[in-house]
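User: Show me sequence and structure for the first protein, then do the same for the second.

Assistant: Starting with the first protein.
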Amino acid sequence: MAIQAKKTPSSPSIWTWLSITFLWGTVFFGTSVLTLRISSNWLEQGFFNPAWPEIYSVYAIYFFLLLFLALAAMMIKRKQDPWGEKQTRRQQEVLAGKREQVFVSFAASIVTSFSFTVLTALVFQFSSVFVRMTVELAVPVVLMAAVLNVSAGLAASLLAGLVIFVLKKLWG
């Protein structure tokens, strides 16, 4: 069974948007919490040491933000590419070996991992009032955490590329 991209363009379903947004949003939430904690300790600025119950409480708020982001991104993408032609062409080029060979969406993984760290920091700062926890995140701490989190984005991109490579070898 060969791996094939869609032959006829179609826009991804709402469930695709939600599943991908929640998958990567959750992964980068976790890595962001880790890098924010590390950065706060390394730079000895501010305070960021949430306990597990606090992390879960903040994620409950973050969940609704991810839902909003998924729906907003879907609407914007459908305005730009209503029939999914660009997406289908990109999938076909990747599987044909004309695009990314090792990393999948290299630039997007950098931007996404960096952005989700900033977003996570903002949600923790905002949520600290409701969750009753102490969070003091200085800008240098957030920026350092975001740069550190880029390694998680690159690792995810590399992992996705390796999965595609292995699947192409097995079934292609």
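Switching to the second protein now.
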Amino acid sequence: MQPDDRVALLDLENLGIARMRPRPMRAHLETVLLVIGPAHHVVAAYAAEPVRPDERASLLAELGVAPLIVEQGRDAAELALLEHARHVHEVGGRTFLVGSADGAFAELAQLGVVDVLARKHQPIAAKLAAAAREEYRLPRTGEPEPVPAPHSRLAAPAVAGPGDGGAGRRLGSRAAVAILTGVGLAVGQRLVDALLRGRH
């Protein structure tokens, strides 16, 4: 993995997407991916009951996003994403886009370059805003045809390393499909680890 390979870490709860119905969820996720642009891989964390089938995981898989399913609990998704970021750093990654306004993600500045993705008028924690290189803004939840906010400070997404765009998404999709048969953070982390080793 190269230092400029972008890894996107999405907290679906914080982005206001996790509880949406399938159609608006798909529209919002497609907008998120459009704003992110080329990426080595995209991981989306959210809480779910492990014993129940979860259609969100299927939807994420269709879009080439690896679901990182965590147990219900305070800051569980955030902690899982931070753990994944530390693993990415260990294998050479240094460029992160975090889909959250939570100040805990300011920690990512110790691992490399951090960009922030948040809802249109969502307040971003001061320490995260200070740590971020650039900000992305998404429409408010419920807008019928979401598009990237025109006042975003970032004119164009950063470009990942050579050949990472489509290949990274396809690998992410395969990892996500595999996750559908498993449960919990441990399964998701092992599969994303395998994805990273394959790319390294």
